[in-house]
TrEMBL record, chains A, B:
Keyword Mitochondrion found: no
Domain HTH tetR-type: from-to ranges: 20-80
Protein name from the UniProt record: TetR family transcriptional regulator
Domain of life of the source: Bacteria
Organism: Sphaerisporangium melleum
Amino acid sequence: MDYAETVTTRRTGLREQKKQATREALRAAALRLALERGPDNVRVDDIAEAAGVSPRTYNNYFSSREQAIVAAVAGEREARVAAAVADRPDGVGLADAVIEAIVDQYTASDAPGADALLLITTRPALREAFVGTTTAIEHPLTEAIAGRLGDGDPHTARVLAASVAAAVRVALEQWLQTTVSTCTAGGLVVPSGSLPDLLRATLAPLRPALDAAEQ
Amino acid sequence: MDYAETVTTRRTGLREQKKQATREALRAAALRLALERGPDNVRVDDIAEAAGVSPRTYNNYFSSREQAIVAAVAGEREARVAAAVADRPDGVGLADAVIEAIVDQYTASDAPGADALLLITTRPALREAFVGTTTAIEHPLTEAIAGRLGDGDPHTARVLAASVAAAVRVALEQWLQTTVSTCTAGGLVVPSGSLPDLLRATLAPLRPALDAAEQ
DNA sequence: GCAGAAATCTGCGTGCGCGCAAACTTGCGT
DNA sequence: ACGCAAGTTTGCGCGCACGCAGATTTCTGC
């Protein structure tokens, strides 16, 4: 929940260094254990023990059992989406900047954690946590949109960011739904290639709102 | 979560009748106890005991402790919003129908539970649960919008409904924020009169998207 | 270096959410 | 009227989330 130090490693150093280390250890341990045994057969005590910390400490980093597993695949996608929106050249419109940035980030991150994604699509509790990560992009996205809108009403940026995040959530829900049904029916892996198209199609209805805000 | 019987009291009757009775008893007990003592000094066991059911039964009706308290003021606003959208004459545009229906429902319901609202604005956990009720309007709103759009793409209706719900959530968050700060600073009750204006202003950026979907 | 301040880790206790299976209630067919 | 099927309630147990306060580690000023 704290992205202020991701760039310049602010703050004295040894503290934040250890903090990030244990956070990463918890992430890795959670994902590894979830893949080895089923996701249901892993308690927070196991994760904490594998990471070498107290069970109580786990909840100082993640507020739910699923967050650690989901964090491994979701990562800091939120901040990268915002950065991607801001990095688009000024020539392209707001709608294209936002939509393409989101599509890029959500398709690029699929390759590394493909096995983890398959795991997430299986268990409903994990799917819910994964879908819940979309709300995390709201704040960074708000600032990115506000930066592109210039001196406009900051309320508008916030509403648009929330709407975009909601649309992304809808796309993910539908993608997971069709994915699991495909798995059940065909028995093959996920057709991740359709995610970009689905995102574009789902975000399309918001284009008029984004265009109108630009004036 | 089950709105199929709200109109015609379908299903044999005695079962659903008792079900609604205990649900209402739980709601009332939760709100009463929360008002008497502080909201933090009421356990689910107390609510269940006051309603005359087992503590386990409570979680058959509400999946969290706050839901019962919030449900008292939130009620079945979801279904009524959808009905209000559908009831607007065909002459008015989709944007006006949606926005005015929402404004109506969110202002009309404020009067009865004014004291409860003040309670909710105080405790952060309750505010979160109250804000969370906005996602409940997504499904009914989707069908209402789809009905007005006619034979258009059902995806569009879903995205628009999700965006509208997100915007409502943003408005509620901001309203609660300014409300609590006003209370802290001035020490007076909430300026509920500004909610309609805030809703209208927050939903305004989505007008172009709603208008465009209508064609 | 060295105290004092600040942040973090940890054990403990409480309450909550929920799966499970047994008792009980209600509805329906005959 | 009666018995079976379906639905609901309840007790039980497990694991999770978190506040609290003490111990421990890290940072800062001197």
